[in-house]
Amino acid sequence: MTTPANRSDSTQPTSxxxxxxxxxxxxxxxxxxxxxxxxxxxxxxxxxxxxxxLTVLLLLELAQELERLEADDTVRIIVLTGxxxxxxxxxxxxxxxxxxxxxxxxxxxxxxFTLLTESRKPLIAAVEGNAYGAGFSLALACDxxxxxxxxRFCAPFTGIGxxxxxxxxxxxxLRIGMGRAKRMMYEGLxxxxxxxxxxxxxxxxxxxQSALECAYDLGKKLLIRAPLALAALRELLxxxxxxxxxxxxxxxxxxxxLQESEDVxxxxxAFAERRPPRFSGR
Length: 282
Prior knowledge:
Blueprint: E1 14-15, E2 32-37, E3 40-45, H1 56-70, E4 77-82, H2 100-118, E5 123-127, E6 130-132, H3 133-140, E7 144-148, E8 152-154, H4 168-176, H5 178-187, E9 191-192, H6 193-199, E10 204-206, H7 211-223, H8 227-237, H9 244-259, H10 262-273
Parallel strand pairs: 3-4, 4-5, 5-7, 6-8, 7-10
Antiparallel strand pairs: 1-2, 2-3, 8-9
Helix pairs in contact: 1-2, 4-5, 8-9
């Protein structure tokens, strides 16, 4: 088994954009670590002293890096995780006073949610420890949720007089059904890793490896699939269709685009020649 730390093909994590200082640590590292290796980009929420709680500055860095990765054709898969044993405990309450700052935070959270859900690249959330509040919301905005053995998911918003934000009341019922979603959102129910997999909240339980290692293994499987087809499928699945005929029209449009791609020709050649395809994303 290859670990992220000792992979020979890995690159050293680099700092993402740094728009300002973290109030908890003036001489800080970047709030977001970013690295890319063989087509898989890893974004690490990096405020371990606060269990990776989300500040406006951290969210701005995340949004900027997601935009940069979306424009980078060498990046095929994006993994989102948290530093030092936690995904994120959600919004940092010291950074979320009512008024203009609260509005700014919600604006940036919505920007991050939109970038995650509208990306043309598959996204994998690798969750260890707590994924609470808006951290939980960001994880569910990804295509896959990988739960490590210590993973815990919770939507505690009503306990502080708020409703779930960052799209959680939209994404959570789609994953686990309305009844279970209401329990989590109304009661602030904590769901641990095994139950998360049973409910469909987590797609994979990383029982004998870390969530990040499992995410990389999944990413490698996706790398051999046609990137244009994955992007088109992600676009099609992003909508909650109520009109079957509208769905079929969109399916036809996307399929026609793909039929003109070099990847389709390569897929047919590889099938005829009985070899793995070498997709170019064109």
